[in-house]
Every structure is written in C-alpha cells, then in structure tokens.
UniProtKB/TrEMBL annotation:
Protein name as catalogued: DUF1801 domain-containing protein
YdhG-like domain residues: 23-114
Species of provenance: Roseateles paludis
One matching Pfam family: DUF1801
SUPFAM superfamilies from the UniProt entry: YdhG-like
Domain of life: Bacteria
C-alpha cells in the first residue's frame, strides 16, 4: 500500500506551503484550471501542481515574484497567443506577476486550448 498522498491532497499540501497571499493566488488558479478541465487528473509533477488528460494539460507554480504557467498557449490559436503575449516568460512559459490582477479568464482559455489539442491527438 502506497503512503504517497493522492493528487488533490498533494496539491493541497503544495498550496499550504506558501504565505497566505500566495496561497490565495494558487487557489484561484487551481479553481480556474479545474473548471476549464474538469475531467483532468490533478497531481504534483516537476514539483508543482499539474493537470493531465491524454498528456500534460498544464502545470502551474509559485515563484518569488510571479505565478508560472507551463506549457504555454497552443501555437495554433493566434488570438490566444496575442492575449498571452504580455505574460510570455523567457523559457516558453507564462508569468503572472503577483502585483498585477490575475487574468483568470486567460488562464482558463489557455487550459481549454491545451486540453482541446491533447484530445485531438
């Protein structure tokens, strides 16, 4: 019998390990990504929360000054790429500074696009 926590419990523990203001950001993102991909499996992967459905849909993680979202927007959606461009990070990720309002609708749209691409494979 495994003693490893299940996916949701592991994500709960990840979020709980941060300061309250970062916990609030992570919780809001978690709710948005779960709503955008309700059938996806939630787990910790690469030491951050992730959703999987027919492959990786999205990873998100807390960093010192921003929330990171991986992988980025599906390259075939030009409108979504344009909306995400201001948040493009140096390594192909999206970075959402804690000091700015969190664009939860954009994050949800990225997740929906990633899920659609996964399901089309």
């Amino acid at each position: 019998m495994s003693t490893a926590p299940d996916g949701a419990a592991a994500v709960d523990a990840y979020i709980a390990s941060f300061a309250p203001e970062v916990q609030a950001v992570l919780s809001a993102v978690r709710q948005a990504v779960r709503a955008a991909a309700p059938q996806a499996e939630e787990r910790i992967s690469y030491r951050m929360p992730a959703l999987f459905q027919r492959g990786a849909v999205v990873y998100y993680g807390a960093f010192k000054q921003h929330l990171g979202l991986y992988p980025p927007v599906v390259a075939t959606d030009a409108a979504l790429l344009a909306r995400a461009a201001p948040y493009a990070g140096p390594k192909g990720n999206l970075q959402f500074p804690y000091a700015d309002p969190l664009p939860l609708d954009l994050i949800a749209n990225v997740v929906r696009a990633r899920l659609k691409a996964n399901l089309a494979r």
